[in-house]
Amino acid sequence: MFRKVLIANRGEIALRIIRACKELGIATVAVYSEADANSLHVQAADEAVCIGPGPGKDSYLNIPNVIMAAIITGAEAIHPGYGYLSERASFAEACEASGLVFIGPPPSAIEKMGDKAVAREIVRHAKVPVVPGTHGAIRNEQEALKQAQRIGYPVLVKAVAGGGGKGIRLAENAEDLSRVLQLAQSEALAAFGSPEVYVEKFIPDPRHVEVQVLADAYGNVIHLGERECSIQTARRQKMVEEAPATVVAPTLRQKMGEAAVRAAKAVGYVNAGTVEFLLDNKGNFYFIEMNTRIQVEHPVTEQVTGVDIVREQIRIAAKERLHLSQRDVQWRGHSIECRLTAEDPDNDFAPCVGKVKHLVLPGGPGVRVDTHLYPGYEIPPYYDSLLAKIIVWAEDRPAAIARMRRALEETQIEGVKTNLPFLKRIMEHPEYQKGNVSTQFLRRYLRNSAE
Q1: 45 in Cβ contact with 29 (< 8 Å)
Q2: Which of 140, 302, 398, 421 is deepest in the core (most CB within 10 A)?
Q3: Which of 278, 385, 408, 396 is nearest to 337 (CA)?
Q4: Catalytic residues, which ones?
Q5: Of 295, 104, 283, which is closest to residue 211 (Cα–Cα)?
Q6: Count of CB atoms within 10 A of residue 378's CB?
Q7: Which residues, listed in sequence order, are joined to residue 24 by a DSSP beta bridge?
Q8: DSSP-assigned states of every residue in 94-157
Q9: 270, 300 contact by CB (below 8 A)
Q10: Would you call the peptide bond into 154 cis, given omega within 30 degrees of 0 as the criterion?
Q11: 182: DSSP letter
Q12: Integer Cα distance of 256 and 365 in angstroms
């Protein structure tokens, strides 16, 4: 096992990783920007190194500075968390070249799954269902129109290197496709450095269901079941997640889990990863992408399985075998996570900044809060708007919803505008309570609220 690990991240996920390291007896090194000098993760770590000014490109995305911080502090491994450098094959390669262990998958797996067109082809050959679409990136408008005609409208134009809902455009017909193609290519170039896009069939009103996998370096791959992440903003930012998914019966869970394991094996995956699917109203599921890192919403899986996923990531990176087989994985109860963000839902979820003047976080049985907030914390303008993850567990979904409603009522935060009232309204919505959700739920809900 490692003696010292550097955490190349900030906020709640940096704290989450530091806690896992401490429980494994591993010393920790935090890195921080000048804007994060007073952050909790800096205080919680055994050592801390400033790696640059506030903007992420100058600090948390500065590979030479992160690597140097690990070397001068004597860290043996780097945990990237999520976002920032977590899905950059070049960073994983730089770690290896510097004699450091990257706590994540091999660079080759990151690279293959990071190219959405390549990933589709790889999993399709592994007999994982994919949404009907083009085989690889399209070369020109004529090819896009020809393929869309073959697939049938409506179609989505998606960035090959995409993620986080960026670089995606809907085309209802050929005229639409000609219009949005260049927009999608421009957005893809700006967001991911590559204008390559592909076309796939638009699945109306689907659910977003993803499967957590764990894989060790000895060829053992298991899944920890699914999470439902259908409650998303128009920009496909997840807001509420839960496990298990309300419509996934044991037989379907087994099929999706086995497909996720095949996808992971197809790219030689090692460590924790998530295979994302769209699930239509007939129970058909289609591969979207694989996230080659820890997910923001991993706690709901931990709550229903009892598996500490971050701890497993570290053990796997230290060349330990998986501590459990597929037969050992059991699911118990129901878990829901609400993302508390500094965003204004009445202003298209625009990010907000400010100083936290008053803070009361929920507690009691079955409530977990992963956060970096404290009273007096100044929210920097440079980073993601996530403030806290409020997670509940109960014996079934109705009890979990009741517990989440109670937890949200207990939460008090003053000094910055948040989505807290919006989260409360979601939990109270009759259709959410019935489990009648899809990726269009928030769009439909917001439209009805405006009428």
Answers
A1: yes
A2: 302
A3: 408
A4: 293
A5: 295
A6: 14
A7: none
A8: HHHHTT-EESSS-HHHHHHHHSHHHHHHHHHHTT--B-SB-SS---SHHHHHHHHHHH-SSEEE
A9: no
A10: yes
A11: H
A12: 32
In this structure, the number of other CB atoms found within 10 A of the CB of residue 245 comes to 25
pLDDT tens, per residue, the chain with 451 residues:
999 999 999 999 999 999 999 999 999 999 999 999 999 999 999 999 999 999 999 999 999 999 999 999 999 999 999 999 999 999 999 999 999 999 999 999 999 999 888 999 999 999 999 988 888 788 889 999 999 999 999 999 988 876 656 678 899 999 999 999 988 888 888 877 788 899 989 998 999 999 999 999 999 999 999 999 999 987 778 999 999 999 999 999 999 999 999 999 999 999 999 999 999 989 999 998 999 999 999 999 999 999 999 999 999 999 999 999 999 999 999 999 999 999 999 898 999 999 999 999 999 999 999 999 999 999 999 999 999 999 999 999 999 999 999 999 999 999 999 999 999 999 999 999 999 999 999 888 776 765 6
CA distances from 389 to 252, 253, 298, 365 (A): 28, 25, 11, 16
Bridge-based pairing of strands 197-201 and 412-414 is unpaired
What are the φ/ψ torsions at residue 330 (nearest 5 degrees)? -125, 145
Whole-prediction pTM value? 0.92
User: 32 near 51, Cβ under 8 Å?
Assistant: yes
Helix (H) or strand (E) holding 289: strand 285-291
Q: 304 with 335: CB under 8 angstroms?
A: yes
Enumerate the H helices of 136-243 as residue ranges. 141-151, 174-192
> Cα 90 from chain centroid?
20
Grouping H, G, I as helix, E, B as strand and the rest as coil, residue 291 is strand
